[in-house]
């Protein structure tokens, strides 16, 4: 259902562009499912009062996170190292003791609590998708298969106690009822030095890279430090530190505590000043982003069309959620992309959402190297380059930060 006011503060919102009718990003499907395919208008906006960047419409979360959810975090070795690193940071920096509770929401098939579990720490993971929850459970992670909010927070608190550490990675952006999430955090977080650590794609990075493919149904929000700080204030919480991250194409990690319990770091202060200079309340920055999106769309379609006109075979690398926005916004279908290669079992031999490009397994790609490969999983570029070094002899296509062809990376 389309909103007319901010999902957080209920102030007026400004819609500044649309990406058109869009299918569910992770709803990879068979030909028999075409008639039932769901579409909605993918249109971002920003709040005139708190600057929160948000979708005007989002499908029912139950259509997005379910027993056949297609994304498995455990398939990326880089992300596993990333989660392991944060788990160790939590222990070292915040002196987490094994008997103190760590809670993670949206931990998918393992997450950070998986590593804390291996080290003998008290933990709970919470995820609404049954298939990934079952995988995490099979690894020995204590799981609750549900959407997080005040009610689940009370349930966890009653059964396990307060959380010394509360974790979320690429999760908050997915939850439309952001007030319920923060109310739940406020309810569950220990009043004795509890810390909430969350990370999501960062709005300033999206603008700088024109990474419009970060905008899809699951990302109902793309946070800035300014917006995150305003949300925290509502619940007597505050951001005391931040950490820019390369993950997800450019993310921000926010360290949050009860007001006055931690010292505010210099890097948080500097980032606040930077955002103030950018003026995220000014419509001009959003209209500039719109113009950059339209230019990228035109250049990508023209490049692919010119290459296909010369008889080239073009494959996509990575059947990502982000690729759904790219293909449907830019009008790219099976006439321009011959197939997409992926390693996720739940996606193989299905079709991409909306444009119905076939998805083949990685062996097919290795045995039938295309002339050009469009790097859709660009946020995993380093991992992919290392994997394909010395093997793939064709040329690469990227669209971040600009549309271009590479002989090599």
UniProtKB/TrEMBL annotation:
Coiled coil: none annotated. Gene3D superfamilies: Methyltransferase, zinc-binding domain, NAD(P)-binding Rossmann-like Domain, Vaccinia Virus protein VP39. It holds the Pfam family Methyltransf_23. Residues 6-65 form the Methyltransferase putative zinc binding domain. Residues 246-401 form the C-methyltransferase domain. PANTHER family: BLL5978 PROTEIN (PTHR43861:SF5), TRANS-ACONITATE 2-METHYLTRANSFERASE-RELATED (PTHR43861). This is C-methyltransferase domain-containing protein. The lineage of its organism: unclassified sequences, metagenomes, ecological metagenomes.
């Amino acid at each position: 259902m389309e909103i007319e006011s901010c999902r957080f503060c209920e102030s007026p919102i400004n819609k500044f562009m649309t990406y058109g009718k869009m299918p569910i990003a992770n709803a990879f499907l068979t030909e028999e499912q075409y008639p039932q395919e769901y579409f909605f208008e993918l249109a971002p906006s920003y709040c005139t009062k708190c600057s929160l960047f948000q979708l005007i419409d989002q499908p029912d979360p139950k259509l997005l996170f379910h027993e056949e959810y297609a994304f498995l975090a455990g398939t990326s070795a880089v992300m596993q190292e990333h989660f392991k690193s944060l788990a160790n940071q939590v222990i070292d920096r915040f002196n987490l003791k094994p008997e103190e509770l760590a809670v993670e929401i949206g931990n998918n098939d393992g997450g950070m609590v998986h590593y804390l579990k291996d080290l003998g720490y008290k933990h709970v993971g919470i995820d609404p998708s049954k298939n990934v929850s079952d995988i995490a459970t099979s690894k020995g992670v204590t799981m609750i298969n549900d959407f997080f909010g005040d009610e689940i927070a009370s349930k966890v608190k009653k059964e396990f106690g307060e959380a010394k550490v509360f974790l979320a990675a690429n999760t908050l952006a997915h939850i439309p009822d952001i007030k319920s999430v923060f109310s739940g955090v406020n309810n569950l977080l220990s009043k004795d030095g509890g810390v909430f650590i969350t990370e999501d794609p960062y709005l300033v990075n999206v603008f700088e890279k024109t990474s419009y493919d970060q905008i899809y149904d699951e990302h109902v929000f793309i946070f800035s430090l300014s917006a995150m700080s305003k949300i925290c204030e509502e619940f007597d919480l505050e951001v005391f530190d931040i950490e820019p991250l390369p993950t997800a194409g450019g993310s921000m990690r926010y360290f949050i505590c009860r007001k006055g319990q931690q010292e505010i770091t210099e890097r948080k202060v500097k980032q606040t000043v930077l955002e103030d200079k950018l003026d995220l309340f000014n419509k001009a920055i959003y209209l500039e982003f719109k113009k950059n999106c339209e230019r990228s769309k035109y250049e990508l379609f023209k490049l692919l069309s010119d290459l296909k006109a010369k008889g080239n075979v073009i494959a996509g690398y990575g059947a990502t959620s982000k690729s759904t926005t790219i293909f449907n916004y830019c009008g790219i279908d099976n006439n321009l992309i011959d197939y997409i290669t992926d390693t996720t079992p739940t996606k193989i031999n299905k079709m991409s959402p909306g444009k119905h490009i076939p998805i083949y397994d990685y062996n097919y790609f290795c045995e039938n190297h295309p002339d050009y490969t469009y790097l859709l999983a660009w946020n995993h570029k380093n991992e992919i380059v290392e994997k394909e070094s010395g093997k793939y002899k064709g040329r690469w296509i990227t669209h971040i930060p600009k549309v271009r062809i590479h002989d090599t990376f």
